[in-house]
Amino acid sequence: MKFKELDPLLHNQLRLAIMSILLNVKEAEFTFIKEKTGATAGNLSVQVSKLKKARYIEVKKSFKNNYPLTTCNITKTGIEAFEGYVNALQGYINKKV
Amino acid sequence: MKFKELDPLLHNQLRLAIMSILLNVKEAEFTFIKEKTGATAGNLSVQVSKLKKARYIEVKKSFKNNYPLTTCNITKTGIEAFEGYVNALQGYINKKV
DNA sequence: TAAAGTAGTTTATATTATAAACCAAATATC
DNA sequence: GATATTTGGTTTATAATATAAACTACTTTA
Hints:
Chain A is of the alpha+beta class. The first copy, chain A, is built from four helices and three strands; from the N terminus they run H-E-H-H-E-E-H. Chain A has one domain: Winged helix-like DNA-binding domain superfamily/Winged helix DNA-binding domain (Arc Repressor Mutant, subunit A), CATH 1.10.10.10. Helix content of chain A is 52%, strand content 19%. The radius of gyration of chain A is 15 Å and the shape is elongated. Chain A has helices at 13-23, 30-37, 41-53, 76-93, and strands at 28-29, 57-64, 67-74. The first copy, chain A, has a three-stranded antiparallel beta sheet. Chain A binds a DNA duplex through helix 2, helix 3 and strand 3. Chains A, B: It comes from Arthrospiribacter ruber. Chains A, B: Residues 14-93 form the Winged helix DNA-binding domain. Chains A, B: This is Transcriptional regulator.
C-alpha cells in the first residue's frame, strides 16, 4: 500500500489551482479564476466542465451588468476529494526522513 | 506569483513514485522499482528513460546471474528538481489556513 | 530442443491538455 | 445606425502524454 492512487482529475496543474482557489472562497467568478491561474478561457472552460461533471464543483450561470457571469463553488465531494489527494501525495513527497 | 509551475516531468504519478523511491536509497534495481510501484515494465521503461534524459536519474546497465540488470540512482539535479516540485506544490495544497 | 521465464525496449493506441477558432451579446466608434 | 471592438465564454482540432501490447534477446528448465 505504498503509493496510493493520485486522483487523475486533481492531478493536473490547472484543475488543482482551480480547486485550491475554491477551497478558500465561498464562490469565485470565471474571470477571477482565469486571472489568478493565468489560464486561457478555453482551457479553463474545459477544466471547469470536468470538475463540474465529477461534482467536485458547482457552476452557476447568471448575468452581471448585462454580461454573462459564471460562478463556481466547491462541493463537499470536492473538498473530500482534495483532502484525499493531498493525503495520497504525502506518501510520495514526505519520505525524506 | 500565486501558482508556481509544476515541473511536468515530475507531475506524473509513476515518475513521482520512481523519484520518491530513489530519494531514499543509494540505488534501486529496475525490477525493485517495478514491484514497489506496480507499474508495467513497458511503462516503467519509458518513464525511466524520460527521467534519465532530463538527468534527474542515472541508469546503469550490467548483469546479475547472467540476466540483464538495470540500476537507477537519483542525481543532484533530480533531488533539486524534486525539492522544487514539492515547494511549488505547497502553494496549491497548503492554502487551507 | 522446445517451452517457459527473466528483463527489459519499442511502438501503436487511447487519453488528455491546450490553443485556436468560434459564438453571442453588449458597448463603443465613426 | 452600421461596424468594429470588447466581454465572457464554448467547441473543436491538434499536439502532447500515458499506457499497454507486442516485441527483442537471452536464460533456464524439462
